[in-house]
């Protein structure tokens, strides 16, 4: 709404089921399952580890395929946005963007800013690293490979959208960018203080959970879970 500056979803549920939306959802599921499988392969024993190892290979291959297909859709199918100019005070005049849409528009910025290729390169390198490390039973390297793959995928999404944060399909000129979506100094300070407190709480909980589960041995068996079911859950 250009008057109240409130955002509204313009569409229906089935509009979310577009090719790039479905592909992004499947890719996210594969990314999480792949990382979880490498972690179980690293931290468990027996049948659970064998199942996790098989899952790393099967999901990893699907992960590679979906990542490639999603990238192809972005390059050849999706109409991307290009920000040509902003108003004299972009943080105040949020509706004064000059935006054009074109096929492959999201990918064109990669040639203007070559450092953006670091994102997809890290994603592919992380997946291959995890697969090869799992094959040779280098479980720690496999886990960190999957972590790099996740970082690369998220970085690729951010690099591709930059400088957009939330593109508007209804009116591209009203898209949110890193300039017109900036918050006030008061809100930023408040979130900083709240974030510090919550971060300390989460850090304390993580240290307690890590010590409770992994303090005795680096891996878990089914017997360990049964013996400590009141502590682990």
UniProtKB/TrEMBL annotation:
It holds the Pfam family Cyt_bd_oxida_II. It is found in: Cell membrane. Keywords: Cell membrane, Electron transport, Heme, Iron, Membrane, Metal-binding, Transmembrane, Transmembrane helix, Transport. One of its GO terms (molecular function) is electron transfer activity. It is a multi-pass membrane protein. One of its GO terms (cellular component) is cytochrome complex. The chain crosses the membrane at residues 12-34, 55-77, 117-136, 143-166, 186-208. Its main location: membrane. InterPro entries: Cyt-d_oxidase_su2. GO terms for biological process: aerobic electron transport chain. NCBIfam families: cydB (TIGR00203). This is Cytochrome d ubiquinol oxidase subunit II. The lineage of its organism: unclassified sequences, metagenomes, ecological metagenomes.
